[in-house]
Amino acid sequence: MRTCFTTSTEVLDSLAVPLVSADRTYIPMTIVDKDIICSNMVYLLENPSNWLFGILESKVMMAWIHMVGSRLGTGYRFINTIVYNNFPWPKLTDQQKE
């Protein structure tokens, strides 16, 4: 997971993940076009797959964020080195990824 700078010319879209979100039951993530310039308060995942987006927006991921993530005020912080890198990713078959 990287922040918003890229030198790759083959990036089609990116998944924008806010570093901090309001106190909600989910963290609002979205797909952004390669021409969008983001602030330093967003992580970008380049060329994300649909299954990755699904897992990151799942209730399992939110439970993980509540347990291992931190808070800033009343909002949750999505820290790539703690939340994303340590998430127990399921082993998916190619059929499940479709």
- The helix/strand order is EEEEHHEEHH
Shape: globular
- What characterizes the major β-sheet? 3 strands, antiparallel
Q: Give the strand content.
A: 15-25%
Provide the number of structural domains: 1
Taking all Cα atoms into account, the compactness measure Rg is 14 Å
**Which structural class best describes the helix and strand composition?**
alpha+beta
Q: Helicity, in percent?
A: 25-40%
Task: Record the strand order, biggest sheet.
Answer: 3-1-4
Q: N- to C-terminal separation?
A: 22 Å
Unreliably modeled segments:
2-6
The oligomerization state is single chain
The count of strands amounts to: 6
Number of helices: 4
Mean pLDDT level: 84
Question: Would you mind describing this structure in some detail?
Answer:
The protein has 98 residues and is an alpha+beta fold. It has one domain. 27% of the residues lie in helices and 23% in strands. The chain has four helices and six strands; from the N terminus they run ββββααββαα. The strands form two sheets. A three-stranded antiparallel β-sheet has the order 3-1-4, with no helix packed on it. The protein has a three-stranded antiparallel β-sheet with strand order 2-6-5. The longest helix has 10 residues. The protein is globular and about 35 Å long. The chain starts with 12 loop residues before the first strand and ends with a helix.
